[in-house]
């Protein structure tokens, strides 16, 4: 019995084993074939049940569950099976159903075990029996008639009607092929299974081959595409994605996996094309971003841009501590957690049943919705109490209010924004957060040293392309062109110069400028800072005071920047799970500086904080010098010069 | 408030003053005010805390931004129970059932500051009944 069971198990488990490595067709086929198999088995089982029942009725010791008995049963049941085979299909089922019911009542224990055995026995012995039955068919049939008589008699005993009996009789004579059919079917099943197995193996092999040969056909495809240079709009994204993965795999182990006769550039060109298609970037931006990272990291970056960043709030220490805010929000059913060790005021929101921007706590100014990345520049600036601070591009006020909170509403903050509409939200946020030391103004940041100078610290969160916040605003992907970048970097350079000039190096506590953008491109970050360092040699970069984030590039794509640019910090969405961000902290050493790129002797007074006190004479001198510079150097920033000259003229009149 | 206004201007730490800028009245420390002088009139949007504004008809309206300061010095206050906070914030009247506390001898039609029970100023209000009358009212009155 144990053996048989084992056999059965084996039979069932075999197809399953094969189906595992392949997730394609064969597994499905097996699945389909299984139920079929089962139904057949069921039929035969039912039949055998009936037989068994007969036997057990004939044998007095039927209730005993001994092995001998079962063996006997089997032997005789085989005979009976043959006999049964003479019945019609319909009758067979009809009877078997009845028998099945019967078994349920009387033969529960016996049936379960012996049935199984019988099934298998049937299957195994059918072949032999088939051979025998052909020869002995006549004799058996005779015997079967007798048997069936007794059988039907018993059936009537068990409550069958006479009509059924008659039917049975008539059918016995009419056809005797049932057994043959069963056998045939079992044979068929065996065949099918074998075919399945073969198919499965074949498929496995073909898959293996595919995997090995993946790159080759791909490259052919490459060629075709490159030559035609035609992007098929209907190209399946799925295919593109797998191709991206494959190419990345090859690029990561280029020596081993490369296709002979193809260089890295070709692979990369293909990859870029695919990436642009898959993530929907325009070509220029993609190139720009792609060059920032190693290949696999670039993919991560693009992937991270598709996922929204976690919502972070900042507790307003002017009104409530982080604990209070957390408690009151938890009471509203908000799921939150401190954002990290680096911040004592940040809370990360996981999910919330109420809109976070509309709770009474929010309206009362207990907290501010603010991305984790925008904590950075403020923390880097580290304002002290009673300082005079300028926030050049302040709206909508997240950083300004954070500044005020750090200063505990002392000193003064000048929050400036060039956009008047955005100033409204800035004012509203300042009021809501209870900031009292803030003066909101509406100037173009580039006008600044003329409006006011001598700040202790300056925060310049420059307007940027927003390549760090693509997850927030995906329109960046397609809307930014080379022209935009040129304009933006130009503005940024002007802003940083005016920021440096507005700062007072003689400040006892400060003299710092923090430049930040929510962009990750080198053009908007390192290059701008580098430009500022060149133009204003009275400045140096200092450590940003942030203990995480990646160091800035001190050289990039052949351009080499000032060495100290590695003191700046970069933040990426895929590594830090916050928006892409850049922070550079600059210390102004003196208010005057020697112009390095100027061959002329003479010290030029920086138009920085000294401006407020500078006399007209100095201005004139400055103007004169700058004019000279303008004539001599083509490289010099013309716009800025013009501006300074105009300013000078104004002052004069 | 009335006489308490003196405390606003003559504070122990720094002298503050009221300044009028484009119809709006701001309450600001003198040092900040002096610094803000250099900001042009057109470009200056706000400074310090906005206290209120003059309407076109010349009436003075308090601004909600002044709540924090006014709450410290207000003469008549009303405290609202926690379950009444939201209805009040959404613009409904304060029912007697929601009334947690009220300054003694508040007259009728008196401007008051509305606070939550945890002393967070919520807004302004005008009493419909005097304190003495309010005692007699039914909860929904």
TrEMBL record, chain A:
Active site: 518 (nucleophile)
Entry's Gene Ontology cellular component terms: nucleolus
Keyword Nucleus attached: yes
Bias type Polar residues, positions: 46-59
Binding site for S-adenosyl-L-methionine: 393-399, 417, 444, 461
Residues covered by region (Disordered): 1-93, 131-177
Pfam families linked: Methyltr_RsmB-F
GO molecular function: RNA binding; rRNA (cytosine-C5-)-methyltransferase activity
Coiled coil: none
Transferase is among the record's keywords: yes
Comp. bias regions, Acidic residues: 132-151, 163-177
Keywords: Methyltransferase, Nucleus, Ribosome biogenesis, RNA-binding, S-adenosyl-L-methionine, Transferase
Compositional bias (Basic residues): 1-12, 35-45
Biased composition (Basic and acidic residues): 68-83
Family named by the database record: Belongs to the class I-like SAM-binding methyltransferase superfamily. RsmB/NOP family.
Descriptive protein name: Nucleolar protein 2
Protein source organism: Clydaea vesicula
UniProtKB/TrEMBL annotation, chain B:
Key words of the record: Nucleus, Ribosome biogenesis, RNA-binding
Gene3D superfamilies noted in UniProt: 3.10.450.220, PUA domain (2.30.130.10)
Compartments in which it is found: Nucleus, Nucleolus
Protein name per UniProt: Ribosome biosynthesis protein nip7
GO-annotated molecular function: RNA binding
Family annotation (PROSITE patterns): PUA
Function text: Required for proper 27S pre-rRNA processing and 60S ribosome subunit assembly.
CC annotations in GO: nucleolus
Chain segments annotated as coiled-coil in the UniProt record: none
Any one Gene Ontology BP term: ribosome assembly
Similarity comment: Belongs to the NIP7 family.
PUA domain mapped to chain residues: 76-141
